[in-house]
């Protein structure tokens, strides 16, 4: 059982890291496009604009939603174990 949990943790961590990096790259591309379109909310310099935008993204709710990669599979497995054993 412990080995299964360890494998699950490793797989979920790999998925989390991949999803997190992908999401950050998408956000960075959107910030660059917004800067090129004339948005100067986070500053006039492109690099500082992207950096400040990514700092705002790091504190966002959307970024925290990625943690559901850990919560949802564990909750589903716990429910299945409960349903099989106690129904």
UniProtKB/TrEMBL annotation:
<feature type="transmembrane region" description="Helical">
    <location>
        <begin position="6"/>
        <end position="23"/>
    </location>
</feature>
<keyword id="KW-1133">Transmembrane helix</keyword>
<feature type="transmembrane region" description="Helical">
    <location>
        <begin position="65"/>
        <end position="84"/>
    </location>
</feature>
<keyword id="KW-0812">Transmembrane</keyword>
<keyword id="KW-0472">Membrane</keyword>
<protein>
    <recommendedName>
        <fullName>Cation/multidrug efflux pump</fullName>
    </recommendedName>
</protein>
């Amino acid at each position: 059982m412990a080995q299964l949990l360890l494998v699950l943790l490793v797989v979920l961590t790999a998925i989390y890291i991949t999803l997190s990096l992908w999401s950050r790259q998408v956000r960075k591309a959107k910030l660059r496009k917004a800067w090129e379109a004339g948005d100067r909310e986070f500053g006039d310099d492109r690099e500082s604009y992207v950096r400040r935008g990514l700092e705002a993204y790091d504190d966002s709710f959307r970024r925290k939603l990625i943690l559901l990669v850990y919560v949802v599979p564990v909750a589903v497995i716990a429910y299945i174990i409960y349903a099989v054993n106690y129904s």
